[in-house]
Specification:
The protein has 393 residues and is of the alpha+beta class. Helix content is 49%, strand content 15%. Among the domains are: 147 residues, no CATH class; 123 residues, Nuclear Transport Factor 2, Chain: A. It is built from 15 helices and 4 strands.
Length: 393
């Protein structure tokens, strides 16, 4: 009955949903052209690696390269003006940079239609000389949620609007226009096909719902019963044979358990200290490489020895800029916490860190890989705990 109502009352809405699936197929059909565009943009970035092009210069290059794709020009101009794209430039035509690419796609997924995400990701793959990505899975998730949002018209609610809120109309984005389908199938046959697709989707949702209910039921039943303090039989026995009165013994004091890492009375906890180091290792990619963002460093580093080394004349950042050099990191992670020393004024932590980096300079690329124990100290500044200094143990 629900399928017959959908057929008679919402045939137009269904055809619109099918056309949205076709948009993804249209973008995929011209994938080679998109990848070639990204490859040319990557070669352009390589030619200007010595002096990184400004966002305005990149926008001009995009306008020339994508002249035959007017519907993608606005998203691409927005793309190359973002700081997350600037972090991709050192990886142009290198085959690396997939993590930065996925972060950029995730960032713009809140703005653009899924078909735009698929097209932009293919351009970025050409730019990096890479493959894969998350845009297609994001698009499929969004379209699946849209189909699941269909409801019976008798409930008095309509399906939600599909397009993302964006100054670019999602309905106008397509890389190549598909030819009109030539068919001689009668309207009755088309309606039957639509009916079959909807019925299949309903059946799939029903199966998934059943699996979820069975799983939750199994989890609830597998949890053991709580331990009872005493049984009714034991209570009856105690009432029938009350114990002889004995002198009360003073309660024994329980041993104190000191857990300064978990519940600090003051200072920073061990988990907070490790989280701060994780953030520092993540942003080093943008501090020691274009755009050499000292604002990110200011959020994590207090005014101490580390800050002085970063920002002083001839310091780490200025040395890289003066020598037309930069670092890239393929791995930067905390392996283990060796020890933690809490303090109200200057706590410290010893951690094992693994870093795989490459120093890029006019003389060539110098790779480095090491695992060492580092001592990090922290200091409170402006109400927040920040890095004060770190040194090899």
């Amino acid at each position: 009955m629900w399928a017959r109502n959908l057929k008679s009352n919402r045939n137009i809405d269904f055809e619109q949903q099918v056309s949205k699936f076709q948009k993804i197929a249209v973008v995929s059909a011209d994938r080679a052209h998109l990848r070639r565009l990204g490859s040319e943009l990557g070669e352009y970035a390589q030619r200007h690696r010595g002096a990184l092009p400004s966002p305005g210069t990149l926008q001009g290059a995009v306008a020339d390269l994508a002249a035959n794709l007017p519907d993608l020009q606005a998203p691409l101009r927005d793309l190359v003006s973002r700081q997350t794209f600037a972090a991709l430039i050192p990886y142009a035509r290198s085959g690396a940079g997939s993590i930065q690419r996925d972060a950029l796609i995730q960032e713009i997924s809140r703005v653009y239609h899924p078909s735009v995400l698929v097209a932009v990701e293919e351009i970025l793959n050409g730019f990096l000389d890479a493959s894969g990505g998350i845009a297609l899975s994001l698009s499929q998730t969004e379209l699946t949620n849209e189909l699941q949002s269909f409801r019976d018209p008798s409930e008095g609610t309509s399906s939600r609007q599909y397009y993302s809120e964006s100054p670019v109309k999602a309905s106008s984005i397509s890389v190549s226009q598909p030819k009109p389908a030539q068919t001689s199938i009668s309207s009755n046959t088309t309606n039957q096909a639509n009916n079959g697709l909807v019925s299949s989707l309903i059946a799939l949702v029903g199966v998934l719902t059943g699996v979820l209910v069975i799983t939750l039921t199994w989890l609830i039943m597998s949890r053991g019963p709580r331990q009872q303090i005493s049984t009714p039989a034991s209570l009856q026995a105690e009432q029938a044979n009350p114990p002889k009165s004995t002198p009360k013994q003073p309660p024994q004091p329980e041993p104190e358990i000191n857990t300064p890492e978990e519940i600090p009375t003051s200072g920073i906890s061990q988990s907070e200290a490790r989280s701060l180091i994780d953030r520092w290792l993540t942003v080093k990619q943008q501090i020691f490489a274009p755009p050499f963002d000292t604002n990110l460093a200011d959020q994590l580093v207090a005014a101490g020895p580390l800050w002085t080394d970063l920002t002083k004349p001839g310091g780490s950042i200025q040395w890289l800029q003066n020598n037309n050099s930069y670092y890239t990191y393929s791995t930067a992670k905390v392996n283990d916490v060796i020890s933690f020393t809490p303090s109200e004024s200057m706590p410290s932590i010893v951690v094992s860190v693994t870093e795989d980096s490459v120093l890029h300079s006019p003389k060539g690329s110098t790779p480095s890989s090491n695992t060492n124990n580092w001592v990090y100290t922290f200091k409170q500044e402006g109400g927040s705990w920040k890095l004060w200094d770190y040194r090899k143990q």
